[in-house]
Design a protein that fits this description.
Elements lengths: L2 H55 L4 E6 L3 E13 L8 E9 L4 E5 L2 H13 L2 E9 L5 E21 L4 E7 L6 E6 L6 H11 L12 E5 L7 H27 L17 H12 L4
Antiparallel strand pairs: 1-2, 2-3, 3-6, 4-6, 5-6, 6-7, 7-8, 8-9
């Protein structure tokens, strides 16, 4: 075969591939227009009506989570439902359910490395908290006090994908802390499915209708990658900078703490600890 014939053959292959890709793209575009986008709009309307009704009814639904470092974090109530605007360009929207607990919860972490990991864990899962590092007389780490502020956010983020004409869902904190990803075909999201999904995320039913569509799981276990090591170093430096100010507050404030603290031989005086807790966490309940 001559060189010119080789070029012609290669050109024909490229043309055939381009034609096939064009056909595939046309099919995906048609599927987006006829199936995916209409289904996204149907879902948005469903959740719009659901949010309106739930915010009016204010159901007495108590839920709980297992929280690293604490254990069972219970008596949270789903009491605020928020639906974001529908993005007509991206065909995207989110649903948030705010869960609140009246009483704040405190617990202690005994090692500096575990305290840093605890902060990362709570930040990753959008669990509101305050914390304080307690040092001994030689400014060495003694313990960290964490106070959960009684708020956890459940979030569902729906997004239409043009590259494969599917609907993606990023779900956070549904029945347990963490993020999971799901992929649906438009036909999967029937009215019956939406009813079951709504009952699952509002704890009316325990049937996890999302499970068959799961594609990935991200549970928030800390990987020692460079970015996280840098962030942990910054957290540690911030804690060290805050320590002198905390110690000064301890000396000037001797009022009773909201919670009873055990005496530790290497710690500062009991009256100093009282001032620290009031300064960091305020007067609770």
């Amino acid at each position: 075969m001559s060189y010119l014939d080789q070029l012609k053959k290669k050109a024909d292959e490229v043309k055939a591939k381009a034609a096939a890709e064009g056909k595939d793209k046309a099919q995906l575009d048609a599927k987006m227009t006829q199936e995916v986008i209409p289904k996204m709009q149907v879902m948005y309307q469903y959740f719009h009506e659901m949010v309106q009704q739930l915010n009016y009814i204010k159901p007495d639904t108590k839920i709980s989570y297992e929280v690293q470092g604490l254990g069972n974090y219970d008596e949270l109530m789903q009491d605020e439902f928020i639906l974001g605007n529908y993005d007509k360009t991206r065909h995207h929207f989110f649903l948030r359910i705010l869960c609140h607990k009246q009483r704040k919860v405190r617990f202690q972490i005994q090692s500096e490395e575990a305290a840093t990991a605890q902060q990362e864990y709570l930040w990753k899962h959008n669990v509101q908290f305050k914390w304080a590092q307690i040092n001994d007389k030689k400014e060495r780490f003694l313990k960290a006090i964490f106070e959960l502020q009684g708020r956890i956010v459940i979030e569902l983020e729906f997004d239409a994908q043009y590259d494969d004409a599917t609907i993606h869902l990023k779900a956070k904190n549904i029945h347990q802390l963490g993020r999971k990803d799901y992929i649906f075909q438009a036909r999967d999201l029937s009215s019956e499915f939406l009813d079951k999904l709504a009952m699952y995320i509002t704890y009316v039913a325990d049937d996890n209708v999302l499970a068959p569509f799961e594609t990935d799981t991200i549970w928030g276990h800390l990987d020692k990658n460079p970015e996280q090591r840098i962030r942990q170093k910054i957290i540690k430096e911030m804690a060290q900078k805050n320590t002198p100010a905390m110690a000064q507050t301890q000396k000037s404030n001797t009022t009773s703490p909201p919670v009873q603290e055990k005496s530790v031989k290497t710690s500062t005086k009991k009256t100093e600890k009282k001032g620290l807790f009031r300064h960091l966490f305020g007067q609770n309940k």
